[in-house]
Amino acid sequence: MKHWTENDFQKWLYGLKEEDAHLQTCSECRTEMERLRLARRRTFAAPEVSEDFLAAQRRNIHNRLNHPNRNFAPLRWGFSVAMLLLVVVGLTLTPFRKSPVALTNDEQLYSDLAAMEQTSEPKAIQPLHRLFEK
Amino acid sequence: MMGAMADRLEVSLDRGASTREFGAWMTSEQKRIFLLCKRMLQDIGEADSATQDTFVKAWQALNRPESKELDNPASWLTRIAVNTCLDRLRSRRWQFWRKRPAPEDEETILRLAPSDGPSAEDRIFAAQIGDRLESALDKLSLRQRAVFALRHYEDRSLAEIAGILELDVGTVKVHLFRAIEKLREELHDLYFRDRGTK
Questions:
Q1: Residue B28: its chain A contacts at CB < 8 A?
Q2: Largest Cα–Cα distance of chain B, in whole Å?
Q3: Is residue B43 part of a domain?
């Protein structure tokens, strides 16, 4: 005859194992079962909770029931929208800085290229010519 | 008694749950809900807030025009409490800076039960192993913790737990089995400390 193991008893205590035929006949296991029932009951001895604490808790709950509209969500939304508007208005009123005009546009580039084609000497030599002219 | 409470609440529902009726019901359930929250959250301050949230949610639900009749107000309230605690436990994962309350604060709120039950030695032992067991609940997943707390501390049947958590009984059994496996050492000390293993 195989006795129930510690594991079996634990499962039984928590409702995961049913009593079986062995328990009906084995006085040793039944005694152990009773002992465990008592041990379990010990842990149910709930601690006393301070009456003052419970009373204060009830007062807080009643306060919350009587003032249910302490909800700051609309205020938070309003604040967010106001900030967004402020940013939009700020961006609208700030004058856009014009991007610096390109010093050389296409037309100027073409005219420079045309000039370079017409002269056989590079522009950089011109100052040297001026030296000898004197 | 439960039936009477259900009747009172049903009557209350017809005319908008009165504060006084609700207050009486709250007083009768408050300690149980607070201890359940305390066991799930392991923090007096958070358990206090969760208990308040639970009753505020219950009040709001009872006053909703579309609210239904309650077959079992205690289980219904337990479900609200468990869900509130699970929400807090989920958001707690991000609160790594959270400080645990000082043990002295707990002692002023919670005391050992009076001596009309088990012997003083038994009560002290129960308190010690109870503390260890409650700390060990951290090892469990949120669902496992809820299932174990309802079974171990409230002695609820598996079917009741399934109803409260809106799970099927098979799932509850799996959660409970895994919880027991993880708490094996603590449970061994609780039940088998004073005898050799078979």
A1: none
A2: 61
A3: yes
Reference A115, options B109, B6, A107; nearest CA is A107
Residues B125 and B70 occupy one common structural domain: no
Adjacent-strand bridge partners of B110: A49
pLDDT tens, residue by residue, A95-116: 766 666 565 678 888 888 888 7
Do B89 and B154 reside in the same domain of the chain? no
* One domain, residues B147 and B193: yes
B75-114 pLDDT tens trace: 999 999 999 999 998 887 666 555 555 666 666 666 655 5
Q: How far is B131 from chain A (nearest CA, A)?
A: 10
Q: How far is CA A85 from the centre of its chain?
A: 26
Q: Count residue pairs from A and B with Cβ separation < 8 A.
A: 106
Number of domains in chain B: 2
Please report, for the domain that includes residue B144, its CATH number.
1.10.10.10
Q: Which domain holds residue B188?
A: 112-198
Q: Give me the CATH number covering residue B72.
A: 1.10.1740.10
ipTM of the predicted assembly exceeds 0.90: no
Q: How far is B20 from chain A (nearest CA, A)?
A: 10
Residues B124 and B184 in one domain: yes
Quote the crossing angle between the two packed helices B142-152 and B169-182, to the nearest 10°: 90
**How long is chain A?**
134
pLDDT of residue A108: 84
Q: State how far the Cα of A11 lies from the Cα of A23, in Å rounded to an integer.
A: 14
In the 8-state DSSP scheme, what is residue B186? Answer: H
